[in-house]
């Protein structure tokens, strides 16, 4: 049987992971699953009390407390990261992948859009043939 130690703010145990593996089946747990885990932890910690009294003791111990976030790293603005993520400093073809605000253009920035209208690449008057060959409307007599 694992040894559970419940202090004022934290619960540390050798089998704490196995306790939650029995309670949860997914990556996150619901509030009811959390309360169920606390009740089981309370029964193991306060063996001499009834399960309801043990749960009340645990609830009193954690009341008003928030989780301690320890060992969490913060984002650091290093020159290397800022150089790699600042789109205004990009050169060459990479510069064309972003607009003036720094947002990506998507596929239009990665792939050159070809003109498949049927005209040759050097033709500058696309769409003007119909205008030249159209007869002016005849006036009624």
Automatic annotation (TrEMBL):
Biased amino acid composition, Basic and acidic residues: 93-113
Record-level GO BP terms: microtubule bundle formation; microtubule polymerization; positive regulation of protein polymerization
Entry GO MF terms: tubulin binding
UniProt xrefs under Pfam families: p25-alpha
Gene3D superfamilies on file: EF-hand
InterPro entries according to UniProt: EF-hand-dom_pair, TPP/p25
Region Disordered, residue ranges: 83-141
Family according to the record: Belongs to the TPPP family.
Name of the protein this chain belongs to: Tubulin polymerization-promoting protein
Biological source species: Danio rerio (Zebrafish)
Lineage: Eukaryota, Metazoa, Chordata, Craniata, Vertebrata
Name of the gene this protein is made from: tppp
């Amino acid at each position: 049987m694992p040894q559970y130690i419940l202090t004022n703010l934290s619960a540390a145990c050798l089998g704490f992971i196995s306790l939650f593996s029995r309670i949860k089946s997914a990556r996150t747990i619901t509030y009811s699953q959390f309360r169920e885990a606390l009740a089981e932890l309370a029964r193991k910690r306060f063996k001499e009390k009834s399960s309801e009294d043990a749960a009340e003791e645990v609830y009193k111990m954690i009341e008003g407390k928030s989780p301690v976030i320890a060992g969490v790293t913060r984002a650091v603005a290093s020159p290397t990261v800022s150089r790699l993520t600042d789109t205004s400093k990009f050169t060459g073809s990479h510069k064309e992948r972003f607009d003036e605000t720094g947002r990506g253009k998507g596929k239009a920035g990665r792939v050159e859009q070809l003109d498949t209208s049927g005209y040759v690449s050097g033709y500058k008057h696309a769409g003007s043939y119909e205008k030249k060959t159209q007869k002016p409307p005849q006036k009624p007599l």
